[in-house]
Scavenger receptor class B, member 2c (Sphaeramia orbicularis), 491 residues
Amino acid sequence: MTRRSCAIYVVGIICAHLLIVGIGLVVAQVFRTLMHNRLKKEIVLVEGSRVFESWKKPPPPVYMEFFFFNVTNAKEFENGAKPKVTQVGPYTYREYRYKDNVSMVENGTKVSSVGDPTEDSITTVNIPAWAVMNKLKGSFFKAPMVSLWMSSLGSGFFTTRTVEELLWGYEDPLLARIATTSPDVEKVFGLMYKKNGSNNGEFVYHTGEQNYMDYGRVETWKGQSQLTFWTSDQSNSINGSDGSAFHPLLQKNERIYIFTPDLCRSIYMEFEKDVEVKGIPAYRFTPPRSVLASKEENEANTGFCVSPKECLGTGLLKVSPCRKGAPVVASFPHFYLAENKYVDAIEGMSPERIHHQTFLDLNPTTGVIVRANKRAQINILIEKISGFPKTRTLNETVFPVMFLNESVVIDDASAARVQKLLLIVTLVSNFPLIIVALGAIMLAVFLVLLVRARRQQTAGEEDTSYTPVKDKDKDDPQNGTYIGLTPKVDQ
């Protein structure tokens, strides 16, 4: 066997082994499984893990934008006219979200505000007054007394306050008067009062060590595994994470759950589309209409009705059970995804998906949040209240007060780390394909060598001539021993 033949056989053997091994690994997904198992073990909430410190102290900056609805015809509304509002904002603050507490620091971190929150005034619903009136609804003794107090203090259905007062608190005269007889009543009111440097209660999370699907999932909140605000076990369930962590290896067909104390419930999000943020591929998840659908549209939401008479339509959630009975209604900004009647009831509403949608952009491999916008609107339910004669002229209205946009985009340093990790995952997971590619190259080389060897063999056969041996040549004793040369004769 010649060296060339040996080379061909060696190339063929190597080619066969590479293809068999590579295809086998691809079919069995061995390296992909190994990489995924590694991710499941690395992405856990334990000291020293890759994600623990960034989970405890998230590096990307979080911004809180506040938009207010300034009422321009308060007196006309009190006489039965359709309310008119204009949107004012944003007033933007930098938020520091540490797991031991949550702080929104104003000094040196306020950005992109349209004006000065200490100077800009907003006319809006007098939330303390409506909270008190709802609390005393039907009380034939206390309601008339508080009604007189409101008149003497000049505490009406609407109030004009600075943005800073509305957000961080002011002493309300009606609450101050009530506090003289009820010490448990807080004198100061603010939409974000006591939330600066505070927390939402103690959370207990799953680490994800036993099951990667439980990574970041809330086990208990304030020591409870079930809520007590609503009328069904399903509605009182605490499902999902707190919105800051999601398990790796996300699938497009799964529904992700988030427990949010601001809404006093868990909500869910579903896949919408593929996106890319700073070169990182991501799945966009967003709450569908069914999350805040009416009980007629989604029977599972029946448990969120405070009572059969206090069950609002699609797009709204009355959260008074966890707001000390105040008539607070949550929705998406400008009543996005809500019934048209709520939009049409207020002049100045214009819901748009691009501006008012809540969404999460998650990298499916790691579960890392690469971009997010949490948007929610605070409304007050205004209606006729027994014991308060001045409310008789009012039409029942879900009145918008303010909406916020909590946004975050992954920072460059974190994005670089995620990209590096994704590159490693891709290379390791696709290593069998590299083997198959090498096998394919070796197969091409093997075929080329075979073709060349065949051609050379054929050429050799065509250049060789054979002469029959005569009988006398066989008998010639010198045959095979001597070669006779005959001089060439010129023609």
The CA atoms of residues 254 and 322 lie 29 Å apart. Residues 431-462 form the longest helix (32 residues).
